[in-house]
Each structure stands twice: as C-alpha cells, then as structure tokens.
Amino acid sequence: MNAIIQIYAGFTTLEKRGFVKYLKAKNKRNDTKNLALLKLLDKGKAKSASTILYPNQDKGAFHALCKRVHDSLVDFVASQSFASESQKDMETLKLLLASRLFFEKKHFKTAFKTLKKAERKAKTLENFSILSEIYHTKIQYAHANPSWSLQRVIRDYEVNKLLLEQDFQLNMAYANIKENLVKYPKKPVESIIAEAFSHFKVKINQDLTYKSVFQLMEITATLGKLQRDFYSIAPYMAELFAAVRQKGSVPPQQKYYYLNILYLLAVTDFRNKKFDSSKRKLQEIENEIKTAKKGTYDALKHKLGVMHALNALYTSHIDNALAILKLASKASLNAQLLLAMCYFQKEWFSEANAVLTQLNKTDRWYEKKMDWIWVLKKNIMEILLFIELDKLDIVLNRLTRFSKNFSAPLRIIGEERVLIFMDLVKTYYEAPHLVTDDRFKERVEKSFDWVGNDQEDIFVMSFYAWLKSKIERKKLYQVTLELVS
C-alpha cells in the first residue's frame, strides 16, 4: 500500500487522469474497486481504505486489490515512458534489427539504406550504445558495399567507443556526487564536483550528450539547493551550458533535455539574484513550448509559472506574482506555498493562513512528495504567521516542535543560522517590546555570519527581512526588496 501511495502521490493531475482512463479501459467488471481506492487516496483516506472498501474486514481481498493496482501503476508508468523518449530509441533499434534481417536475406540495397537511417537517428539521439551495434554491423558487412571504407568505419567505431566510455565515466561521476552529497553534507559544493570530475576524468566539452549535461546540472543544482549555495555552483552551470552551446543547433529529439537545462539555469540565475537573465531564459523556454505538441511539456509549464512568480516577487511586482500563483496554486504545492509567502510579504496574514491551512498533510508526507527544505520553509512561515495572528498559545508548541524536528538535520548541514534565527523569533514572541532595543539589535548583528549580498541565499534573506522589519518598524516587503537589491 505504501508503494501505491508514493507512486500515485507523485503523479501530476494530468497523469492521474490518464491512469484513471487506463484503469477504466482495463476493467472488465463493474464491481472492480480499483477506481474507488484511487478516490480514497485523493481524499487522504489511505489508512481507512481497507475498512471502507471491505466492511467485512476481508484483508486478503484488500491485499489482492492493492497488488492489482500496484501492478497497473507499474504498467502505466512503463507504457508512458515507452510512449515518449524510449520510443525513439526503440524505433532506432527496430531499424537496426530490420537491416540485419535484410543482410541475412541478401537484400543489400535495402539493408544499407535501413542501416544508414538507423545510424542517423542514433547520432541525433546521442545513443552511443546503439551506435556501437550499428558500427559492428557495418564492419561485418563492409565487404558488401564498395562505397564504404572499412578503415573509415573502424575509425567511426573507435570514436564512438571513446564517447561511450566517456558516458560511463560521466554516469560514475554523477553517482559519486550523489553519494558524497549524503556522506559529506557540510563539504563545499565546488570540492564535491571538482573531485568527482577529476577522479573519473570527466571533461566538459561538446562531446557531452544533452542528457548527460542535464543530469550533471540537476545534481549540481540539488547540491546548491541543499547547501543554500547557488553562488558556488554558478561557474559549473555556466561551463556545462557553454558545452551545450558548442554543439550548435538543438535537434528536435534533444529539445526536452535542452529546455530543462535552460530551466535549471533560470533557477540558478534567480537564486543568485540575476533576475533579468532568469527572465530571458524563461522566455526562451516559453517560445519553444509554444511550437511544441500539446501536452509535451506540461510538467515544465507548471514550474515556469512558479519561476515567473518568484522573479516578479523579488523585482517589486508582487501583484503580478499573486495573479500568476492564484491560477497555478491548485496544480502545484510549490505554487501554493509561494502564494502564502506573497500574502505574507504583503502582510495579508489571514489570506496567507487560509492558504497554509489547506496544506494539512503531515510533514513526512510533504517531505516525500517535495523535499526536506520545502517542509522547513513551510514550518518557519507557519510559526511567523501564528505570531502575526496572535495565536500565541500555538507558537510555543510549534517552536518546541521545530527545535525537536529540525535542530539535528540543520546542524548536520552546517545551518545553525536557522536555529539562531528561530531563537531570536522566540525572544520576539516572548517580549515584542525588546525588538527595538539597541541591545537586541546588537545581538541580531552579532548572531549572523553573512557571506555578502551576492552570495547570500535569497530565501534566507526573505525570512531575515521579517525580523529586520520589526527592528526598523518598516513594511516587510519594503525591507525584503532592500535586502535583495
């Protein structure tokens, strides 16, 4: 049952509709309970699903139902994957296999033509494994084609062999970075990346595939996010993108990876407060999406909305951000949390509370669905909001819970600043009149080790702005913009 919840919770609204349609087509009886189980999951009634669906406590039947739904989920995900990227690889493999059959039957003209088509597709897809098989076939039948030079085919094979080896090295470096991210959470981002690249002899150049660049950028951005240090990863992101630019025009089959690469760069620019650059990249992505087949980039579209809102929020256009998020919040937890944050910045605390009240699942559920950092932000915002709404009976309990749940993880990653900030929040909660006292101001200044405006994390600044606005008796949004700019 846990596996079903995890997989199904990770579906977008569109994917959930697709899965329901898939089950309806698969169901041969009217009394099948699989659709009813999904409705209960959507309502957050997973724990009581067995008793609702089987009042007679038939645990065997419920277990069988869960197994059928789980198997259907796996089949659905596999078919979705096959229908997208993997289908292109399968088409190329089919051409290769067809050419081999033609060779066996001595239909050489058709075989050469089919194999050439397969080679062209494999190169476009940058699939070095399939290309290796294609060159094996070309070497085997080179004697049958006078226009082929065996030495040239062997050279092509050797070049592809090097690219395939580089791809393996890159995958090992990628895995190494992920492993070290867990092992050494305090280790500087640039050290983890540099050591992995050096050990596995990874060279950043135009020979890297679009997929490889995307994977490296994704793990690099994850490092930056977890350590709240997008400043240090920016040079690596720029170097990787330069390698992509060197490849020339982007083949249609690689647009998915290219647009996601652009998105990661837009996020990095935003986190480094380069808002204009971030906006330009988002616009380039949107221009590409406009000409794409409907539904191709739905997941990316939702993320674009959040990024547009973030850029608007931190460039004095908070009302534009609100307009975007009101439309996007139903489809995205990120958008929902950001909508609450915008209301909070405008000091519309009741509206912010109304949004956060809808996020009523457990922290563990949200951590699985989103990530630990998202849960941390949500908890901090809730505590600040309870203080603003004078729900002081709740505040002390939430501060205690915050310390219990987040102290150890924050210390592990070297983010004691958050704990210091929450300690200052507790002081304000207990004695609000002290906030304008010179001794409190001095305590605040000595409590934080700022790394400079360029390097400081934008979300760290946003939470600090709340405390600073109390000290200076200014509007929160005004102080936030002053800090960020």
Description:
With about 475 residues, this protein is mainly α. Among the domains are: about 1-85, no CATH class; about 85-150; about 360-485, no CATH class. The chain is about 75% helix and about 0% strand. It has helices spanning about 1-10, 15-25, 35-40, 50-55, 60-85, 85-105, 110-125, 130-140, 150-185, 190-200, 210-225, 230-245, 255-270, 275-290, 300-315, 320-330, 335-345, 350-355, 365-370, 370-390, 390-410, 415-430, 440-445, 460-470, 475-485. Helix 11 packs parallel to helix 13 (about 255-270). The mean pLDDT is about 85.
Provide key terms for this protein.
about 0% strand; mainly alpha
Integer-rounded radius of gyration = 27 Å
How many H/I helical runs? 25
Main β-sheet description: none
- Overall structural class, as computed from helix and strand content, comes to mainly alpha
Per the principal axes of the C-alpha atoms, what is the gross shape? globular
Low-confidence stretches: none
Number of E-type strands: 0
Oligomeric status: single chain
Q: Helix amount, in percent?
A: over 70%
Mean pLDDT: 87
Query: N- to C-terminal separation?
Result: 48 Å
SSE succession: HHHHHHHHHHHHHHHHHHHHHHHHH
Q: How large a portion of the residues is in β-strands, by DSSP E?
A: under 5%
